[in-house]
């Protein structure tokens, strides 16, 4: 018989696991890892003649994507164009970024799998006599290691030609040059920290769902058990 067990700690772990997976996925897909040096609009001369104001913009560069501004001379309008600069894996700008993409993708796949499984832990707490919470916590720890490896390797690619075109000639491995770090990089770091917190907290979720109070309510014949 399936017993639906919901506790404060298990629900918090489930929600946090889902949030971490989505945060890492969004960061990985974003082009806002590096914010390039300010560049004037390509219609700068036209603006000078018409007395328009100059509004420099800062293009952004991700692991495999980028955002830049395209000026429309006819309508004096500027649009920001975002999309992948690499059509396939081999076209990613740096070998270090290729390794980063691999490690982050592996970590995110594990986190998404755990997030999916965590939803069902309300009904199924163990499989083959092993706690799902402990197994998921172990997987989250492994995913965190993959994420750390990816984040360590990422700055080593700042010396590639693509990064130099955005960050200036002084950019090199672990040196930003004229660039600054975007929100996606910080989100990936925050998600990695939360991944390890989830891995540790999974043990608390397991303890909460196998506590004496839960066992007492199961013995009383209750199928829906909610505990704070």
UniProtKB/TrEMBL annotation:
GO-annotated cellular components: membrane
Membrane topology, as annotated: Multi-pass membrane protein
Amino-acid biosynthesis found in the keyword field: no
Keywords: Fertilization, Membrane, Transmembrane, Transmembrane helix
Superkingdom of the organism of origin: Eukaryota
Predominant subcellular localization, coarse grouping: membrane
GO biological-process terms attached to the record: single fertilization
Sequence segments annotated as region (Disordered): 40-59
Membrane-spanning intervals of the chain: 12-35, 96-120, 132-154, 183-203
Subcellular compartments: Membrane
Pfam families: L_HMGIC_fpl
InterPro entries membership: LHFPL (IPR019372)
Similarity comment: Belongs to the LHFP family.
Record's protein name: LHPL2 protein
Gene: Lhfpl2
